[in-house]
Design a protein that fits this description.
With about 230 residues, the chain is α/β, with parallel strands linked by helices. It has eight helices and eight strands, in the order αβααββαααβββαβαβ. The chain has two domains: about 90 residues, Winged helix-like DNA-binding domain superfamily/Winged helix DNA-binding domain (Arc Repressor Mutant, subunit A, Orthogonal Bundle), CATH 1.10.10.10; about 110 residues, no CATH class. The radius of gyration is 19 Å and the shape is globular.
């Protein structure tokens, strides 16, 4: 069965949704480098009508939130026929409409971080979502939230990042931090970044890392909030 015809720009939108999972309309417009939202809205409406994308739009009095988009049946089939398609990942995409709000918020946050870093015009900048990580790469054993690289003084700067959600149990946070430290113990140039979704989590992570740093003299761990 042939898939409905779409434009190259629409295919570009699908690729961004494959990488980031959930994106809002404003993010998609920024990723496409489009100043006029009219074309973006037309492309998204057509993709949704043709069952390439799903749409989440909630009307809240006094709050103007942009619609969220994700891949649906035809969008997933679009990638299924590609050479080297990650079948395991594609099967997961059929469950997108049942994802938790926490998962969706994390996807949107990663896209926001990408756009902010991209705006800094860092040399050789590239961000890796979980979809971008090579299938047979060792890093998949750790599976960070995302990673990025850029060049500074002719040297490539590596950052591996973990988003710590608000409400994550303290023992789980400590365990995850220790996983990162163990994984990168022989790679002192790897910068490890923990992105905390609340001030409360931020304070806990900072205190725990300060304690670890004093004991092991670690200098490549950073903590930030959103």
């Amino acid at each position: 069965m042939l898939l409905p015809t779409i434009t190259n720009k629409q295919k570009e939108i699908l690729h961004y949704l494959y990488r980031f999972r959930f994106l809002n309309r404003i993010q998609i417009q920024s990723l496409l480098n489009h100043k006029d939202p009219k074309n973006t809205n037309v492309w998204l409406k057509d993709l949704t009508t043709k069952n390439y994308t799903g749409k989440i739009f909630e009307r809240t009095p006094g709050i103007n939130k942009p619609a969220l988009y994700y891949l649906t049946n035809n969008g997933i089939k679009f990638f299924s026929s590609a050479e080297g398609a990650d079948k395991k990942r594609l099967r997961k995409l059929y469950q997108e409409k049942r994802r938790s709000q926490g998962f969706i918020d994390q996807c949107v946050l990663i896209a926001d971080i990408y756009l902010k870093l991209k705006a800094q015009n860092l040399q050789d900048f590239k961000l890796y979502t979980q979809a971008d990580l090579p299938t047979n790469s060792v890093i998949r054993d750790l599976l960070p939230s995302f990673a990025y690289v850029y060049s500074k003084d002719a040297k490539l700067q590596h950052h591996t990042c973990e988003i710590i959600k608000d409400g994550t149990p303290r023992f789980a946070i400590r365990s995850r931090i220790n996983q990162y430290i163990e994984f990168f113990k022989d790679q002192p140039t790897m910068q490890i970044v923990f992105v905390c979704q609340s001030q409360k989590i931020l304070a806990f992570v900072q205190k725990f890392i300060e304690k670890i740093s004093e004991e092991s003299e670690l200098q490549n761990i950073h903590v930030t909030n959103i």
